[in-house]
Design goal:
Length: 164
C-alpha cells in the first residue's frame, strides 16, 4: 500500500493551534462548500487507539489510490488526514468528525511551504470537510483541519521527494 510505504518519508511537523480571536478566513472556498452539507462517509467509524484521545478512521474520501501519510487529532472532535497518491502525485486533505451530527463549521486546507490556505474547503458540514487536492511532488506541505473552532494540522511536512 502506497500510504504505508510513504509514511516513513514524513518530516517532523508542528501542530497548529488556533489564533486567539481568529476570524474566519475571507479566502475563496469552493461554491459547493458554502451551504450545510452531509457528506456520506463510506464505512467510517470511530476507533480508540492506545492513547486516551479517540481517533477517527480515515473515510477514503480522497478516492482510490490515496493512502494516509500523516494525521492530527482535533481534540476529541475528529481527525484531519493528509493522504497521497503516487499515481496522481497529489496530496489530499480531509477533516473527519468523530461523531456526525448537526452541521458545524469545518475546514480542510493544504498549501505549499507554510501556506495552509492555498486550497480550502470550508463550510457547515455534518460529517467531514474536503477533500482538497494539491499537486506538490517533492515539496513540503502544510495542512490543517478545523471542527467548530478546534484546529489541528502540521506545518511543512512530507518534504521528501515522494515522486518528483
Amino acid at each position: 500500500m502506497a500510504g504505508v510505504a510513504l509514511a516513513g518519508l514524513a518530516c517532523a511537523g508542528v501542530v497548529l493551534a488556533p489564533a486567539a480571536g481568529a476570524a474566519p478566513s475571507s479566502g475563496a472556498a469552493p461554491a459547493a462548500s458554502a451551504s450545510a452539507a452531509s457528506h456520506a462517509v463510506p464505512a467510517a467509524a470511530a476507533v480508540t487507539t492506545g492513547a486516551k484521545t479517540p481517533a477517527v478512521a480515515y473515510n477514503n474520501a480522497c478516492g482510490s489510490g490515496y493512502g494516509v501519510v500523516n494525521s492530527a487529532p482535533i481534540g476529541t472532535a475528529g481527525t484531519v488526514y493528509l493522504t497521497y497518491s503516487s499515481k496522481t502525485k497529489k496530496n489530499c486533505v480531509v477533516t473527519v468528525r468523530s461523531r456526525p451530527g448537526a452541521a458545524v463549521h469545518m475546514t480542510a486546507s493544504i498549501g505549499v511551504g507554510t501556506h495552509t490556505r492555498d486550497v480550502v474547503d470550508s463550510g457547515d458540514y455534518t460529517t467531514y470537510a474536503g477533500p482538497v487536492y494539491l499537486y506538490a511532488p517533492g515539496q513540503c506541505v502544510s495542512w490543517r483541519g478545523e471542527i467548530a473552532g478546534a484546529v489541528a494540522g502540521k506545518n511543512q511536512t512530507n518534504c521528501a521527494a515522494l515522486a518528483r
